[in-house]
Amino acid sequence: MGAELGDSRRAQRLLLLAKSMANKPEVSFPSALPPSELE
Fold first, then answer.
1. 17, burial (CB in 10 Å: exposed 0-12, middle 13-18, buried 19+)
2. Residues 26, 10 contacting (CB under 8 angstroms)
3. Helix (H, G, I), strand (E, B) or coil at 5
4. Do residues 3 and 18 touch, judged by C-beta distance below 8 A?
5. Which residue of 22, 27, 31, 33 is surrounded by the most CB atoms within 10 Å?
């Protein structure tokens, strides 16, 4: 199970994003993620 994005790094970033947003559903992407992950 998982997303096929053509690159394992993309899948890992998607997983990080999903976990971050699940933990903080009330905040925006910039607030939920570390600055290095917003690039």
1. middle
2. no
3. coil
4. no
5. 33
